[in-house]
Every structure is written in C-alpha cells, then in structure tokens.
Amino acid sequence: MENFSEISPGDAIKYLPLPVVIVTARKGESMNGMTAAWISQVSAKPPVIMVAIRLERYTWELMKDTEYFGISVLGEGQEDIAEFFGTVSGWDKDKFKEMEMEPFYSEEGIPLIPGSLAAFVCRKREVVEIGDHLAIFGEAIKGWEGKGDNPLVWYRWNVTGMKSD
Ligand SMILES: Cc1cc2nc3c(=O)[nH]c(=O)nc-3n(C[C@H](O)[C@H](O)[C@H](O)COP(=O)(O)O)c2cc1C
C-alpha cells in the first residue's frame, strides 16, 4: 500500500491510543492498585469494560477471589501516580502508604484514586486467559465524576496528556 511501510503486527497495535487508569482491588484488609492501559468499554447496556492484567500482578492476587474492583481514570497532573502505581508492586510495598494517599472508598470498601477524572466500581464477570494476559470483564455498578478535563493517554509506549481543545 502506498505511504505504508510494513511493520510487525505487535508494533502496529501499539498505535492504538489507550486510556491510563488505576485498577484497584481489596481482599479483607489488603488493598492495592496498579496502572493499566489495556482497557476498553465493551458494552453500553449493561455498561461493561474489559481490562487486561498479567497473572503475576499483586492486583490480580486480590481480584481473583473477590467480587468487586475499581477503575479510576487518570487525568493531566496525575502522571506521578501512573508511574508509581505502574512500576512498584503491591507484592513489595503498600503503594497508598508510600504515596501518602488517602483513597476514597466505595460502599464495597474498594479504594478509588482521589483527583481522578472519574471512577467506577465493577462487579467482576467473565475472565478469559488470552495470550500473556487475563482479559477481565467487569460490569460498572456505580460511578463518580471528578473535576479535570484532559485524560492521560498511553500511546506508542509513552504516557501523554491528550488535549481536549
Ligand atoms: C502506563 C502503564 C500502563 C500499564 N498497563 C498495564 C496493563 O494494562 N496490564 C498489566 O498487567 N500491567 C500494566 N502495567 C504494569 C503494571 O502497572 C505494573 O507491573 C505494576 O507494578 C503491577 O502492580 P501490582 O503487582 O501491585 O499489581 C502498566 C504500567 C504502566 C506504567
């Protein structure tokens, strides 16, 4: 095709602009959050999303036997949260304590990230093992809106702020 140079399929899919979120989970007194960009809406009625998580994540350890998880949509100014929650593991550290972050809690006790553009709590539905990730489907059962305007976007392996104007 003219103007196209062939690249690997794996490199081509890196051109998908993806949102940057924090997936949060809680099992008893243990809670955790991790950055995720491999996330998408898959149904409007009911509102269902899919997030792809590697099996070895501590977040999955908390999610696998529990019913609910949280998604906080990060906006401009939250790059440090995206980086910390995406490079440090809950297997080693309490990320909320390390960041001195007091989360907002849903009725289900799920922690959500303060200052996010929006946040919602999902009831876990199907989990499909596919390639090197688990595709976890969750139905959003409660939602909140925050104050910011511009989402953080994962694009070609970098986090960038996406301007709305
Ligand atoms: C911008 C960004 C996006 C990420 N997206 C994902 C993702 O979609 N799925 C995943 O399993 N890991 C993803 N990661 C890696 C995890 O966030 C990282 O391994 C984290 O330390 C896991 O934490 P945990 O072990 O406490 O669950 C991402 C990291 C960054 C920085």
Secondary-structure blueprint:
Elements: H1 9-12, E1 18-19, E2 21-27, E3 30-36, E4 39-43, E5 48-53, H2 58-63, E6 68-73, H3 79-87, H4 95-98, E7 104-105, E8 111-112, E9 118-130, E10 133-145, E11 152-155, E12 158-161
The structure holds flavin mononucleotide (FMN).
Concise structural overview:
The chain has 165 residues and is mostly beta strands.
Could you characterize what this model shows?
With 165 residues, the protein is mainly beta. The protein has a single domain, classed as Electron Transport, Fmn-binding Protein, Chain A (Pnp Oxidase, Chain A), CATH 2.30.110. The protein has helices spanning 9-12, 58-63, 79-87, 95-98; strands spanning 18-19, 21-27, 30-36, 39-43, 48-53, 68-73, 104-105, 111-112, 118-130, 133-145, 152-155, 158-161. 31% of the residues are buried. Flavin mononucleotide (FMN) binds at residues 20, 32, 34-38, 52-54, 57-59, 82, 86-91, 154, 159.
Q: What keyword list fits this structure?
A:
165 residues; mainly beta; Pnp Oxidase, Chain A; 4 helices; 43% strand; binds flavin mononucleotide
How many helices? The count is 4
- What is the domain tally? 1
Oligomer designation: single chain
**How big a fraction of the residues is strand?**
35-45%
How many extended strands?
A: 12
CATH topology: Pnp Oxidase, Chain A
- Amino-to-carboxy terminus distance: 33 Å
- Secondary-structure element string: HEEEEEHEHHEEEEEE
Q: Provide the CATH superfamily.
A: Electron Transport, Fmn-binding Protein, Chain A
What's the story with the biggest beta sheet? Answer: 7 strands, antiparallel
Neighbour order of strands in the largest sheet:
3-2-6-9-10-5-4
Shape: globular
- For the record, the CATH class is Mainly Beta
The hetero compounds bound to this protein are: flavin mononucleotide
Output the structural class: mainly beta
**Proportion of residues in helical segments:** 10-25%
Q: Which segments are poorly predicted (pLDDT under 50) over 5 or more consecutive residues? A: none
